[in-house]
Specification:
- It is built from 13 helices and 23 strands.
- The chain is of the alpha/beta class.
- It has a domain of about 240 residues: FAD/NAD(P)-binding domain (3-Layer(bba) Sandwich), CATH 3.50.50.60.
- The strands form 5 sheets. Strands 6, 8, 9, 10, 17, 18, 19, 20 and 21 form a 9-stranded mixed β-sheet that branches.
- Helix 2 links the parallel strand 3 and strand 4.
- Helix 1 crosses helix 5.
- The chain binds flavin-adenine dinucleotide.
- Flavin-adenine dinucleotide (FAD) binds next to helix 2, strand 4, strand 17, strand 20 and strand 21.
Length: about 475
């Protein structure tokens, strides 16, 4: 098999170095050793955790992000309670495509996007659509999204994404190992597949950015690609292979396994919706759940797409909205898939999972409450059949989930500038699984008062 290197070497090593001051000192893709560099958090803090007094931290949300925050907080010696209206992992984390993707460093909003918006409005089944009725509500978010798609901002955002996500896999490792869930994570790399060179050329800017950030990319063509994925239609003749990428074979079971391990280690999970906060002298002294009021020491808001209203009650206004996505699970797909795949032409993911093959993706702006439009999931299947003509939909299940999304494709990982005992961990959009363990580690560092090895200013809550 012949795998070609696609693009001339860029300024990858230099850019990667600017993004992160590493604890490990090593960026594997770039093979580059950097001088250790540490950043302190925005506020001076007592040294808590194992070196001093532990805190009782309440985390709202037991999705993959909240559970990883809980586990890293336990590791620092804190007492931790997770509160969720549902069972762990039943929100957006249930149905992702399963990619843990350290090389993802290109925002959703890219230069040239503005000219595509009218077309998006016209096609309700297109990869990105806006429900007409939601347009007035989403308009301010979209303006910010367009502003974030200028070449200058894309460059800045991509540096911040790379700095954050490049340790995604290694930060998951200790959690997955302790939970004995290693069987749920595979490190096979992934393929981004195109219908010929002409189609790949349209994505040149994205791959240029990835190269400059130090992400390893190989091109695979024709017969070599057929050998890798024999079920693929031959007209899909070129792929970009990203070796440094993992995937989980069941995103829900992974979250569930980590949540069980959180309990095994002494963490508490309360199945209860949080309604608000008991403010005393302007400070959140209690958390009001559906069942009871509880005293509050430290708080982490990790409630996914529902975090915006909680943050607002705590004095922080964040332009969080939801990019709704769909999946179709094919339990008897009729073909074998060897690698997780992204379709460069149809813009969705195809992942081999324990329960069959999952087709996942699309973006729909329709808010938190609108009913799902499962025709969007059916469209995923129609597109997937173009790539894999042997694909079967017998017994297929459809799902819709709400990605928590900010207009600049970056999450909020931050201490509240209003209340020093409040922390935020939400808004990871398309990369919440990828960023969950990294976020958990950083939140624990913020709560404990330890220095961290990346600059957290791009993710601060009041950046908008
Ligand atoms: C189709 C699709 C494909 C995706 N594929 C990928 C992928 O391949 N890789 C990747 O990295 N990411 C992917 N994502 C994104 C990823 O799934 C999300 O970013 C991630 O799951 C967000 O996790 P979370 O914990 O922040 O939110 P959630 O999983 O939604 O968890 C938030 C939790 O908070 C709880 N909650 C909310 N409000 C309250 C309240 N008031 N009181 C108590 N509990 C509350 C909810 O019940 C929920 O359980 C995909 C998303 C979709 C939709």
């Amino acid at each position: 098999m012949r795998i070609q290197t696609p693009f001339p070497a860029g300024r990858g090593k230099e850019d990667a170095a600017r993004g992160r001051g590493p604890a490990t000192g090593l960026i594997p893709e770039a093979g580059l050793v950097l001088a250790p560099r540490q950043f302190s958090h925005e506020f001076p803090m007592a040294d808590n955790g194992k070196n001093g007094n532990t805190r009782h931290v309440t985390v709202i949300g037991a999705g993959i992000v909240g559970v990883c925050c809980g586990l890293y907080l336990l590791r620092d010696g804190h007492k931790v309670t997770l509160m969720d209206a549902q069972a762990p992992g039943e929100g957006a984390s249930f149905g992702s495509a399963g990619f843990i993707s350290p090389g993802s460093c290109v925002p959703i909003g890219m230069p040239g996007l503005a000219s595509k918006v009218p077309g998006m409005l016209m096609d309700p089944l297109g990869p990105l659509t806006i429900r007409w009725r939601y347009l007035p509500r989403i308009a301010p978010w979209l303006l910010r999204f367009l502003a974030a798609s200028s070449p200058k901002r894309v460059e800045e955002i991509s540096l911040a994404m790379r700095a954050l996500y490049q340790s995604a896999t290694e930060d998951f490792q200790p959690l997955v190992g302790e939970a004995k869930a290693a069987n749920l994570v595979r490190r096979d790399g992934r393929l981004e597949i195109y219908r010929g060179e002409h189609s790949l050329a349209k994505a040149q800017l994205k791959y240029d950015i990835m190269r400059r950030r130090g992400v390893t990319l190989d091109i695979v063509k024709g017969a070599d690609l057929q050998k890798l994925e024999p079920a693929l239609a031959p007209e899909y003749s070129v792929a970009v292979r990203i070796p440094d990428s993992s995937h989980t074979t069941d995103p829900f079971r992974l979250t569930e396994a980590l949540a069980k391990d959180f309990q095994r280690q002494g963490g508490t999970i309360l199945r209860e919706k949080v309604l608000g906060f008991d403010m005393r002298g302007g400070v959140p002294a209690g958390i009001i759940g559906e069942g009871a009021r509880r005293d509050l020491d430290a708080l982490v808001v990790a409630a996914g797409a529902y975090s915006g209203s909680l943050a607002r009650q705590l004095g922080s206004k964040v332009p969080l909205d939801t990019e709704r996505g769909y999946h179709m699970m094919l339990p008897e797909p009729g073909i074998e898939l060897r690698f997780p795949i992204s379709s460069g032409d149809h813009h969705f993911a195809i992942t081999p999972m324990d329960g069959g093959i999952r087709l996942a993706g699309t973006v729909e702006f329709a808010g938190l409450e609108a009913a799902p439009n499962y025709a969007r999931a059916d469209k995923l299947y129609a597109s997937a059949r173009l790539m894999f003509p042997g694909l079967q939909a017998e017994g297929a299940e459809r799902w819709m989930g709400r990605r928590p999304s900010l207009p600049d494709s970056l999450p909020v990982i931050s201490r509240s500038p209003v209340h020093p005992s409040v922390f935020y961990a939400f808004g990871h959009g398309h990369l919440g699984l990828t960023g969950a363990a990294v976020t958990g580690k950083l939140i624990a560092e913020l709560v404990t008062g330890k220095p961290h090895n990346i600059d957290l200013s791009p993710y601060r809550v009041h950046r908008f």
